[in-house]
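User: My instructor asked us to take a sequence, write out its structure as tokens, and then describe one feature of it. I'm not sure where to start. Here is the sequence I was given:
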Amino acid sequence: MSDPSLSVKNQIEKIQILNNLINSCNSYKKDREKKILPTGDGMAIGFLTDPKLPVELSLELHEKLGIHNSNSSNQSIIQVRIGIGSGHVFIVNDLNDNQNLWGPGIILARRVMDLGDQGHILIEGSFAVNLFNIDSELKKDIHYLGNYFIKHNQKIDVYSLYNQYAGNAEIPQKFLDLRKSI
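Assistant: Let's start with the prediction itself. The structure tokens for your sequence are:
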């Protein structure tokens, strides 16, 4: 969401709008046990009660962003990338004794997000497969992109979540670059 061409004031306004949009999502409110880690111009949200909530929130947020963006000037348009993964997440306190999230689950979600372009909702492979086992209807909106080597030469399968209302159906640039290099 960062855009160095925008004023700091404008970027802060966009962060506040994004926070308000997320807070207005019904799926965000469903998990009272969730943990949130602000990351500057974004956040990591750890859902603890229902593995479908990250997908539901992503779809709901994208629909709300679509409405917001269609009614906004170019400087007020908000674009996001979302990475969804699973794994162990731990609550650790920082030097100021504030709760923080850390662990392989957060790190993996971040690396999956980093593979996407604006508008992508990317899901790590084992998480996607678990979702299919919970609700086979999700297969119509979750599409296999392929595998990708991330940091430490770790190979992961990546899926893209999109439909006519949410997500980005385009293949992420990093996957296109990978195909060109083969």
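For the description part of your assignment, you could build on this observation: Strands lie at 35-38, 43-46, 82-84, 90-93, 99-102, 121-124, 142-150, 154-161. Try explaining in your own words what that tells you about the chain.
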